[in-house]
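Hi C.,

You asked whether I'd gotten around to modeling the 172-residue construct. I have! Everything is below, sequence then structure, no commentary in between.
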Amino acid sequence: MANLLPSKQKSQQRNCLCCNELFIPDARNRHHQQYCDKPECRNASKRAAQERWLNSSKGEGYFSGEYNVNRVRKWRKEHPGYWKRKKAQCTEDAVALQDISNVQVTENKTDKEISQKHALQDICFVQPALIIGLIANLTGSTLQDDIAATSRRFIDFGRDILGKAMQIPTTS
């Protein structure tokens, strides 16, 4: 099939850095647009831009260090509860968490069989967001440093309870 684009638009086409397909850049961004408008390519563009910013002098160490931890703590004190979700109003479509999590008990199963089906370790390892949310809720803080310190304390408590020394990798 013949290409029906005017010659000026043909000369403005370029290959997307993500999918490598030809696209026509937006007129307002044509000098620097490197990605087409497909969702996956836009995501790749955002990741690349974030990577460039983090590696620049402005972004280097922006989210780490005592200064930034104190900066975030100060902002959160001035904006209490900003991260808490508003309570959802009950609707017919809303499903309670209990409805999803409950084990259906039948007469043929013993308590031991039921408890083995959903071991605590299985629940904990497949739901890291649950653990982080629980820790943030218990401590009242969403700072990574606070959650990490509390997590280490919880792990120590868990080791004491289990009576085992488990190897947990630490990052510095």
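If it helps when you're writing up: The beta strands are 14-15, 22-23.

Thanks,
B.
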